[in-house]
């Protein structure tokens, strides 16, 4: 939320018009009277019209602030995306009111044009290290654990439990997170839409059933907004970068800072199952030990009596990802089948039991 200073508006318009300007009035777009109070009201989402004189001509522009709401504008990035889309589409439609500029409002209260921008680039720091997936590949190929493997699984679970202790009250954002899980392009429906149906291991009826079951879970979970917590959002072995020992950094946090702890837990846990399936066709050997130690450490560090009753749709989503020929084109068909069976059977279970993984992998 912010307000616009009259002097700053004037300075911005000078840059826009490349001439001296005189502001005559600032008003609500509906024509109501302006003044300093009106400028403050701008922060609450009202489009504010500025009437000014430039080079002897009276002109008008309207400043639009995209306000956070419950209809696809729950996060700041949604609001940025809306401005980007509007600026790049308004002027392509005959008869539409023209978009004049897209502007950023800095923390120091300054307005700056970004109309010439055609992309936003993210710049991050660099950290050396090896992705955690390399550990899991080694364990799969050598069929044995070293002490560091247990220590790293415990470190990941402990870290996860710590960040999940921070909670946030926002039922609207909670519902958005559930909708994204089911219907977003990166969520369940986006993944099922990407499945090629000409490879013979799955058909549209099975994928459709998974979607229906997952959406039923969305309705069950909607009242549980108290679970909204700090999350990473994509906590898988390719996004964990280990240095020496148990020190690690995380990459590519996704889908916002608040979500369901089961998202992170399932994202890591499914990979112990996934890599074990590639070697043993079930959860077995060193991966069985690693998987159970991860769960025991997490639940020992953070009490969550509801986790087994909410994790199901998150597990189904992660299972769909690792079973996908798009994301993992080289894995065997029987591995894909067991993962899809896992997704369906987990969704049909009222309470998930991490000690009974192989029961969810078996076809009835």
In short:
This protein is mainly alpha-helical and 364 residues long. The chain is built from 13 helices and 10 strands.
The DSSP helix count reads: 13
Under the CATH scheme, which architecture of the largest domain would be assigned? Alpha-Beta Complex
**Tally of distinct domains:** 2
Strand content: 5-15%
The CA-CA distance between the termini, in Å, is 55 Å
List the secondary-structure elements in sequence, H or E.
Answer: HEHEEHEEEHHHHHEEEEHHHHH
Largest sheet: 3 strands, antiparallel
CATH class of the largest domain: Alpha Beta
Helix share of residues?
Answer: 40-55%
User: How many strand units?
Assistant: 10
Q: Radius of gyration, Cα only, in angstroms? A: 26 Å
| Structural class based on helices, strands and sheet pairing | mainly alpha
**CATH superfamily membership of the largest domain, which one?**
Aminoglycoside phosphotransferase (APH), C-terminal lobe
Could you say what the CATH topology of the largest domain is called?
Answer: Aminoglycoside 3'-phosphotransferase, Chain: A, domain 2
Shape from CA axes? elongated
Integer average pLDDT: 91
Stretches where pLDDT is under 50 for at least 5 consecutive residues are 33-44
User: Biggest sheet, strands in spatial order?
Assistant: 1-2-3
Describe the structure.
The protein has a 3-stranded antiparallel sheet, covered by helices on one side. Strands 6-8-9 form a 3-stranded antiparallel sheet, covered by helices on one side. It has helices at residues 6-17, 36-41, 76-89, 133-142, 147-164, 171-183, 188-194, 204-221, 261-280, 285-301, 312-323, 333-347, 357-361, and strands spanning 21-28, 48-54, 57-63, 103-105, 111-113, 130-131, 229-230, 240-242, 248-250, 258-259. The protein has 2 domains: 6-113, no CATH class; 130-361, Aminoglycoside phosphotransferase (APH), C-terminal lobe (Aminoglycoside 3'-phosphotransferase, Chain: A, domain 2, Alpha-Beta Complex). 46% of the residues lie in helices and 11% in strands. It has 13 helices and 10 strands. Strand 8 (240-242) and strand 9 form a beta hairpin. Residues 33-44 have low confidence and may be disordered. The chain is mostly helical and 364 residues long.
């Amino acid at each position: 939320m912010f307000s616009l200073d009259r002097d700053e508006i004037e300075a911005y318009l000078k840059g826009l018009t490349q001439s001296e300007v005189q502001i005559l009035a600032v008003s609500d777009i509906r024509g109501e009277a302006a003044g300093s109070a009106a400028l403050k009201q701008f922060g609450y989402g009202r489009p504010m019209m500025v009437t000014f004189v430039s080079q002897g001509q009276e002109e008008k522009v309207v400043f639009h602030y995209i306000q956070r709401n419950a209809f696809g504008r729950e996060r700041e990035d949604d609001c940025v995306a809306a401005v980007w889309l509007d600026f790049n589409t308004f002027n392509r439609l005959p008869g539409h009111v023209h978009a004049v500029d897209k502007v950023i409002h800095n923390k120091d209260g300054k307005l700056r044009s970004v109309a010439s921008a055609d992309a936003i680039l993210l710049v991050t720091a660099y950290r050396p290290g090896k992705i955690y997936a390399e550990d899991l590949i080694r364990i799969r190929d050598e069929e044995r654990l070293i002490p560091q493997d247990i220590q790293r699984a415990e470190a990941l679970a402990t870290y996860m439990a710590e960040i999940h202790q921070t909670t946030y009250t926002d039922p609207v954002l909670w519902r958005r997170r559930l909708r994204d899980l089911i219907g977003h392009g990166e969520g369940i429906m986006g993944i099922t839409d990407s499945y090629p149906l000409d490879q013979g291991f799955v058909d549209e009826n099975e994928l459709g059933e998974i979607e229906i079951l997952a959406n039923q879970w969305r309705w069950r979970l909607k009242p549980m907004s108290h679970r909204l917590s700090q999350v990473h959002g994509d906590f898988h072995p390719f996004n964990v970068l280990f240095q020496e020992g148990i020190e690690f950094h995380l990459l590519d946090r996704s889908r916002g800072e608040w979500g369901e702890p089961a998202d992170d837990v399932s994202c890591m846990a499914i990979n112990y199952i996934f890599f074990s399936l590639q070697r043993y066709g079930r959860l077995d050997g060193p991966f069985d030990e690693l998987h159970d130690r991860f769960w025991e450490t997490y639940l020992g560090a953070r009490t969550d009596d509801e986790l087994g009753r909410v994790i199901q749709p998150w597990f189904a989503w992660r299972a769909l990802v690792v079973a996908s020929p798009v994301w993992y084109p080289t894995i065997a068909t029987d591995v894909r089948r067991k993962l899809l069976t896992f997704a369906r059977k987990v969704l049909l279970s009222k309470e998930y039991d991490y000690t009974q993984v192989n029961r969810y992998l078996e076809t009835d």
